[in-house]
């Protein structure tokens, strides 16, 4: 499955840096209940989404591995 940016809906190409925004489950803080992927350039939208409940969101930068495609 090709990841798509949750902000602009465009595909995130492999080798392009991306952001993973995880919303932790309030009932089980060790589990992510929502997982969204964004372009690094769409970080503003990601931060806006997390702003309402910042304690629940975890943001990580990563590169998509070539073999994941
Ligand atoms: Zn984007």
Description:
There is one protein chain. The protein is built from one helix and three strands; from the N terminus they run ββαβ. Helices cover 13% and strands 41% of the residues. The protein has one domain. It is mainly beta and 69 residues long. The structure holds zinc ion. The site of zinc ion has 7 residues, from β2.
Short description:
The protein has 69 residues and is mostly beta strands.
Low-confidence residue ranges: none
Helix content estimate: 10-25%
Strand-and-helix sequence, N→C?
A: EEHE
Count of DSSP H/I helices:
1
Q: Give the distinct bound molecules.
A: zinc ion
Strand content: 35-45%
What is the global morphology?
Answer: globular
Average pLDDT metric: 85
Q: State the total count of DSSP E strands.
A: 3
Number of individual domains: 1
Q: Report Rg.
A: 12 Å
Strand order of the largest sheet: 2-1-3
Computed structural class: mainly beta
Characterize the main sheet: 3 strands, antiparallel
Distance between the ends:
7 Å
Q: Main attributes?
A:
69 residues, mainly beta, three-stranded antiparallel sheet, 1 helix, 3 strands, binds zinc ion
SSE order and pairing:
Blueprint: E1 17-25, E2 28-39, H1 43-51, E3 57-63
Antiparallel strand pairs: 1-2, 1-3
The protein binds zinc ion.
């Amino acid at each position: 499955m090709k990841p798509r940016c949750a902000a602009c809906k465009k595909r995130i190409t492999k080798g392009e840096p991306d952001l993973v925004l995880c919303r932790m489950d309030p009932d089980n803080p060790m589990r992510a209940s929502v997982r969204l992927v964004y372009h690094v350039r769409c970080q503003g939208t990601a931060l806006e989404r997390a702003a309402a409940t910042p304690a629940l969101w975890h943001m990580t930068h990563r590169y998509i591995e070539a073999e994941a495609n």
